[in-house]
Amino acid sequence: MKKTQKILGLPIISISDGMEVGKVKSIIINADRGAIDYIVVDSGIQIFSARVIPTEDILGIGEYALTIENEDVITDISKIPSAIQLLQNDIRVKGTKVLTKKGSLIGEIGDIYVDENDGCKITGLEFIADITQKQIRLIPRDSVITFGKNLTVVTEDIESKLLDTPSQLGSSDGAFESEKKNIFDIEGQQSTQDTVPPAETDIFGEAAGNDLAGMLDEAAVTVSETAEPETTADATIIPEAADQPESDSRDDASVLFEQRQRQYLKGRYATRTITDSEGNVIISEGMQIDDAVIDEAKKKGRLVELVMNNRA
Hints:
Blueprint: E1 2-3, H1 4-7, E2 11-14, E3 19-30, E4 35-42, E5 51-54, E6 58-61, E7 66-68, E8 75-76, H2 81-89, E9 97-100, E10 105-115, E11 121-128, E12 137-140, E13 144-147, E14 151-154, H3 158-161, H4 173-187, H5 212-225, E15 230-231, E16 236-237, H6 246-265, E17 269-270, E18 274-275, E19 281-283, H7 291-299, H8 303-308, E20 310-311
Parallel strand pairs: 2-7, 9-14
Antiparallel strand pairs: 1-10, 2-3, 3-4, 4-5, 5-8, 6-7, 9-10, 10-11, 11-12, 13-14, 15-16, 17-20, 18-19
Helix pairs in contact: 2-5, 5-6
């Protein structure tokens, strides 16, 4: 079991050649699974499209390094719609306020504990009641109902469930899923057992229709339906043919995905200065994004970077 602070900055080692291929820059959390799905790689040089490692491809996370089989498991995030969606959901957990099921704000979250031997699932959270608190206590995973963008919702009896040491933490996914399922059922939302995860909701159960998470859901599903054939060691798996010609299907998916990106980006503000390969500024930090900026970013191959670096 490890705190995420101990994972960030670790060298990433390819065991096939014993070479360091980068460092852990950040993590991408899947709120529905309550786990880290991707590790963002810092290669030590400036890059214009983030590269990630699915946690399922990680061999181990030790005290001195994170190990992978080889560099082939590192993928450009632009090729993984689900990773882009999770990144834009921006579920960080650390620093979020802690809200009880009945609506009381009781503190905030410090660091996160994950089980590196079980799919990097979150096992516990540091609970900080206030700045005068001498000892940081721990919220067990089975007391968390929802990992939200700004709030972590916990069970009403949380005070009696707080732990004192990491060794007391354990995984109890069943209790978590049951509790979260009840919340969604009460509010009339989809169950977390559905094939497609429910749209992100605020604390009153209202759909956050303008959030990028919901905006990208449809595009991600459409793109996945028209994805390239998956190659395995034994055979090439060909997706089921659609009624329309393959080229038309791919074009439609591409257009839909771009429309969703454009809809999301317009009116937001860049959180960093984005330049093209020759150093020409496409948009400066703090400037508002409009159609002209989106068109230029697309033309220069910087659209993914623009999607990754903006705020409302």
